[in-house]
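Supplementary Note 2. Why include the ligand at all?

Several targets in our set were suspected to adopt different conformations when bound, so apo predictions alone were not considered sufficient. For every target with a known small-molecule partner we therefore ran a joint prediction. The input for oxalic acid is given below.
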Amino acid sequence: MTSNTSLKQWVEECAKLTQPNSVHWCTGNEAENNELVELMLKDGSLTKLNEKTFPNCYLHLSDQQDVARVEHLTFICTSAEDDAGPNNHWMDPGAGHEKMDGLFDGCMKGRTMYVIPYCMGPIDSPLARCGVEITDSPYVVANMRIMTRMGSDALARIERDGTFVRGLHSTGELDPDRRFIMHFPEELSIKSFGSGYGGNALLGKKCHALRIASYQARQEGWLAEHMLILGLESPQGETHYIAAAFPSACGKTNLAMMVPPESQAGWKIWTVGDDIAWLHMGDDGKLYAINPEAGYFGVVPGTSPKTNPHAFNMIQKDTIFTNVAKTDSNEPWWEGCPDGTATQNWKGDSINGKRGPAAHPNSRFTVSAKNNPAYSPMADDPRGVPISAIVFGGRRRETAPLVYEAKSWEHGVLVGAGMASETTAAATGAVGVVRRDPMAMKPFCGYNFADYWGHWLSMSDRSNALPKMFHVNWFRQDSDDNFLWPGFGENLRVLRWIIGRCKNEADAVETPIGFLPTKDSLDTEGLDISPDVLDELLSIDAGQWRDEMSAIGEYLDSYGERLPAELKEQQQAISALLK
Ligand code: OXD
Ligand code: MN
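The joint prediction is reproduced in token form.
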């Protein structure tokens, strides 16, 4: 229980509405976790994996219709529709509550209601914010314990601060027709019904740390972003921090945990975060970032000693696997896993003769950040880390060069706003279709993008010490579908150029779209890349860019009157240079 009366009252109201058998206040301690695991092993929602080879690892197979975020069922409920913007589905808050309360009515009958106090960010950080999730899912509790600082310490902070984000969740009957994820940013509250999938059900993550937090951040003068945070340490021991936004399932986790290849001996990458960054301006005008999360909810397929050795190693223990396949030796298996042979697929069926992937393409691992050998010692620093560079990136087979630097903060905001990428399996719907995904926040911005870009632009009125901004594209392909750039660990070469630019040490050529590396300033020694391919990676096609800029212009126009004039001016200036 708690001394905070508004929390007590809200929990009572939720219990009255949902009518659970009992209410359990989570402490986050080990005994509690063990009890929940036992319960889930008994009811079949978890299976224990091979204790010898995968100690303390479990497999959860979800409902087959509940494997990804559901953007078409995700709503922002603001009093004025235009405050949610064309980038969101909107519902009137009164109608939203009525709809959700109808679904929640009596939904926890026969179940336990868990009350999860959690803190997003280091528990003693002034940049952190707290929330409470109420759920009827022990799987959600076990995942929230890994993904957030959850339990007694968070409750104590909530009692000290007096404020918290309210999140009510029930898995309901998992009926896709009775599934909604609703956000009420003006009330700092969330209601999620009918899904157990991480992005829909672990309310601290996308719902709180991005949709609600982005709204709150605008009011309070900071930024809540879909960005990894990494530290790049040079052989001389100097570390620079980079925040990078990529759309879902485009390799943020891999980049944040990269192990430098032999050619880059002496360099080191430290992970601060792999998915979300909260950026606050310090008194010195620099942006300081914290990772609000405490664990990783990463895409499993493709994780191997080659693509991400740290992730591969860290998920050998203490991990909850969701929707992967299994071998005869009761070990998890996924496409790209170097060992074993799957005999059971993610649906729980024997593999024999079954078509399709064995592990679901959006199958996930949940694991504590403490398991990551590259976890930055600065990740728990309450002050956050100073950001030298902001990087935007997408999955584009053509048009976008390997890397370029924006000419100014304002131009950088346009680069972020114009981001586009091919869709992935992280959300339901078609995969591989190019769509605009500004700042990788299309599914996550809790208010009108036009106001959001205005908020980004306003940062430069407050500071002359903002990070430089860049755009990268690891995914260029030729007409035979071969990737032009080797990617993975070799991406470090690009990060080195980026930091070189921040230190005024690396050369560049100016083009209409920004500064591109000179051939000599990007280290390509030892890479098997022909001069022609390098040329293609480090140049722009004016015709393609004219089309790209006019598509960006049309997209910006769809935001109407609210669009900041500055953004359109940037777009027009670049279009003019391309003529
Ligand atoms: C995620 C996502 O799970 O972006 O991080 O979908
Ligand atoms: Mn994400």
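DSSP finds 16 helices and 30 strands in the chain. Residues 226, 248, 275 surround manganese (II) ion (ligand 2) (CB under 6 Å). Comparable summaries for the other entries are listed in the accompanying table.
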